[in-house]
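Form 7-S
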Amino acid sequence: MMMRRGFLAAAAVAAALGLGPAGAGEPLKIGFVYVGPVGDFGYSFQHDQGRKAVEARFGDRVRTTFVEKVAEGADAERVIRDLAASGHKLIFSTSFGFMNATAKVAKQFPEVKFEHATGYQRGPNLATYMARFYETRYAAGIAAGRLTKSNRLGFVAPFPIPEMVRSINAFALGARSVNPKATVHVVWVNAWYDPGRERAAAEMLIAQGADVIAQQSDSAAPVQVAEEKGVWAIGQASDMARFAPHAQLTSFMEIWSDYYVSRVQAVLDGTWKPDDTWGGFDRKMVALAPFNPRTPRAVVAEVEAAEAAIRTHRLNPFAGPIRDQDGKVAVPAGHAVDDADLLKMNWFVEGVVGKLPK
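Output:
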C-alpha cells in the first residue's frame, strides 16, 4: 500500500512538472484562427461561439486561444505556425483561404492535430469540416420567392469560389421553385468582411430594384441598408435581427458548437481521426433564424416543410431537372449533383443574373 501511495505521489509531481505521458495533468491547448473580427456578428462570430462552448464544456481541461482578422496567405501561415510552435495541440483554421497554409504547417508539426474549415486537403493529422450552407439558402429562397414583388432578389457575395456558387444557386433554385419569374442578381465584394463594400453592394442592388437582399458576407451592413430602405433582408451566419428588426426576414445560421465540442472530446479521449465532415440540417450544423413576425404564416409553413424534407433527405436542393444560365439541361430529371461536383461547382443555374469572374 505504501509503495502504491508513493507511486501516485511521484506521478502527481511528474504531471505537475510536465513530465511523464504527454499532456498528463496539463490542459489541452487549442487554437482558433479567424479571417474576420469576432465582433462581426457573422462567420467569425459564430466560430467564436463554438470556442466559448468548448470552454464552457471542458473548463480547466482546456485552454483556448484565438487570433482574429488574419489575412489569407502568408500571414495565415505565420499565425498557424506560431500556434503550433507554442504548444497548441489542436488548431482550427476557419477560412477557405487558410487551406494551403494549414496543410503546409500540418506537415511540419505531425504531433499537432489540425482542422480546416471549408477546404479539401487532408492528411494524417489534418481533418476538414464544413456545413451544407446551401441548404439554408434553398429554404430561405422559398420565402424570398414568395415575398418579392419586383421578382428581383439581390445577393451580396464575397468571392467566386464553389462554396459561394452553391449558395447562390441554391437560393435561386429555392426561389424559383415557388416563383419561376424570380431572378437573383449578384454583386461580388471581394472580401469576407468589409462593411463599406457590403453597404455599397446592397445599395446598388436595391437601386436596381431588388426587394429582398441576401448575403454571405459577414458584416451587418447589408441588413442595415435594407432596414433603411424598407426592403427584406436575410442575415448571415448569426441572427442579425438586432440590426434590422423590421427588415430581417430570417438569417442563415451556422452552428459550430456541437462540432467543436465533439472534436475536442475526441482528442481528450484519444479517438481523434482526420475525418471529413459535411453536415447540414440533419446534423444541426445549419439552421434558419426565427422568421420576422410579419412573414405570412403560410410562407413560414412552406419553408419549414422544405427544411424538414431536406433534413430527412426527401428533398435534395440540387436534384434535377436543373437548367443552366443558357437554358440547357445541366442536371436531368432523376439525377442530382453529387458531393464531388458540388465541391467544384463553377456554373450558375437558370435565374441567376451575371457571370462568374474569370
